[in-house]
Amino acid sequence: MATQDFLVELGTEELPPKALKTLSDAFTQGIVKGLEEAGIEFGKVESFAAPRRLAVRVRDLADAQPDKPVEKRGPAVKAAFDDAGNPTRALTGFATSLGITPDQLDTLETEKGAWVVYRTVEQGRPTVELMPELVEQSLAALPIPKRMRWGAHRTEFVRPVHWAILLYGNTVIDAPIMGLKPGNTTRGHRFHCPKPLIVPTPSDYEVVLKQEGYVLADFAERREQIRKGVAALAEKEAGGKAVIDEDLLDEVTALNEWPVPLMGRFEERFLEVPAEALISSMEEHQKYFHVVGKDGKILPLFITVANLESKDPAQVIAGNEKVIRPRLSDAAFFYETDRKSRLEDRIESLKPIVFQEKLGSLYDKSVRVAALAKKIADAIGSDPALAERAAMLAKTDLVTEMVLEFTDLQGIMGQYYAANDGEHEDVARALNEQYMPRFAGDSLPTTLTGCAVAIADRIDSLVGLFGINQPPSGTRDPFALRRASLGVLRIIIERELPLDLQTLCEWAEQNFTVLTEQQTASTVVDYMLERFRAHYEEQGIGAEVYLAVHARRPTRPLDFDRRVKAVEAFRQLPEAQALAGANKRVSNILTKQGGDSIGETVDPSLLQDAGEKTLAAQVDEQARKVLPMFEKGDYASALSSLASLREPVDTFFDEVMVMAEDDAVRNNRLALLNRLRNLFLRVADISLLPTAG
């Protein structure tokens, strides 16, 4: 089958920079999916994305769908012909529905008899006919929250579309796309090359744009060029290092077709402002990269990326310096003004700010969190007074001028202002650490005071919102309770804190007077324990391991984690599958014979067979050995030791009849099995693990 390269390009007004990469990926995936569903063979697929264009190139695209054999079964042969061998109405009706005569039909022999069948070959559609449909389908499925119309067009897209390319080899596919007649011409840079450019074939696409149009169409190439250019400029001009945030780099890449890094300066007096405020101002508002010296401290420099090669770059730099000066002046003014008032004097300002309509104001929340943080601090060996103080001050920076202007600085500015007020160092740091971890993989609080406040703040929100029946539902999670749960679990586990979720939630519950739901604490604990599933899946630990531990509902996260790690290690042992199967068998037997009513006291005088005597002796020995391990939380060593029970357990089931006729003997054997199972249940329900066979 013949092949050619294919190219589609959509030329638009400037696309939203934060969405460009997502739109490009989705456009490409949509076309790939369409080709696969259509059964058209193709080679490498390449994406292109720039501020004013989305494009996809498909290499070695077959010129048509492959022909497809078609087989349609009709009536049974017995029903298709009468006794004289003439076609019946069933046969003629089937043939007529296919537009053929009965003599064009074959027969198909099967185990259930012979059938009339129609066989033909359905010819594949030409690629040039299919591609416009596939492109339109992919565009329609793009993740665009709000589409717009322009001019007199009824077409809708994220931005107005001005031109389109649809090329198969050197042939233009003449079918409208987004209401436009496609061609083989693109457009270059808005200023360097404001004219149409012919693209002879798909393979010429990015070459034409780069050499003639001053456009780097490949997003990844453009991104890497910006990274290298910014880094080199910082090293060359200042002997420093440009700090390149990956999200900012993506955004700058999406803003530029022909990127040129330029370095500007700002007044050194602005360095008295906390570096985070300067960085926020430069990155968020101006899309600048900041520069640090060899000591890691911020320098009075910034790097901007211009979207053109200026004949007078000094003018471009001066313009950017002029723009950043009032921004930094605002930050300096806010910082100076904020420091004139102590944080503790701002506590009253939290009273009018609603946290949640039924749960009260930020002041109410602060009072609750302070009471809870005090108890947590005491439980983890920290200073309760410092935790209580930090929690009362925790939200006060939200009413400062700096945070009202730069909301991403909440907590960060609180730490600076608390230090300025002369607060204890742990209190100051806790004002920032209360928000840690802010996202998956983020750093955790380094101080115990910070841990206490971070946990208390999240637990208060969880208990409060569940208590008024406003848990997360589906994709709705306005208070980020899923993230809050994972944050609490991470802090407790990774900082190895001896905290129990049930206790924490009950403490939090005591601080509320407005909760309407019953057993809120237990409901929240169940919700949080469920979050462990995804936590371990990300670590490559199977759901069955999580479920085995979850079945025992340990409510101390550190303990839960140790059990999971122990069961995961146990699962790798050669004895694991057989013991899991044995536990499943034991569980079924005990459930049928009375479940919880069965004790675990074994009478040695009632042991008759060698298999049960051996198992009883081994269980006794293991109990003496592993119970101290359980007390210390050394679950891994305990399970490793219990793995030695595989052989006596197998022998027991091979040689011993559990359901003996003698009631006493039978109950004694059930007690032995119950004792065996309860040893494993001290860690997890391993009957839920995969079994042999």
Automatic annotation (TrEMBL):
Known EC number: 6.1.1.14
Keywords in alphabetical order: Aminoacyl-tRNA synthetase, ATP-binding, Cytoplasm, Ligase, Nucleotide-binding, Protein biosynthesis
GO cellular component, one term: cytosol
Main localisation: cytoplasm
Domain DALR anticodon binding residue range list: 585-686
Top-rank taxon, per record: Bacteria
Gene Ontology molecular function: any one: ATP binding
Pfam families to which the protein is assigned, alphabetical: DALR_1 (PF05746), tRNA_synt_2f (PF02092)
EC class name: ligase
Catalysed reaction equations from the record: tRNA(Gly) + glycine + ATP = glycyl-tRNA(Gly) + AMP + diphosphate
Cellular compartments annotated: Cytoplasm
InterPro entries the record matches: DALR_anticod-bd, Gly-tRNA-synth_bsu, Gly-tRNA-synth_heterodimer
GO biological process, alphabetically ordered: arginyl-tRNA aminoacylation; glycyl-tRNA aminoacylation
Cited NCBIfam families: glyS
Similarity comment: family membership: Belongs to the class-II aminoacyl-tRNA synthetase family.
Subunit structure and binding partners: Tetramer of two alpha and two beta subunits.
Protein name per the record: Glycine--tRNA ligase beta subunit
Protein species of origin: Marinobacter santoriniensis NKSG1
Gene name for this UniProt entry: glyS
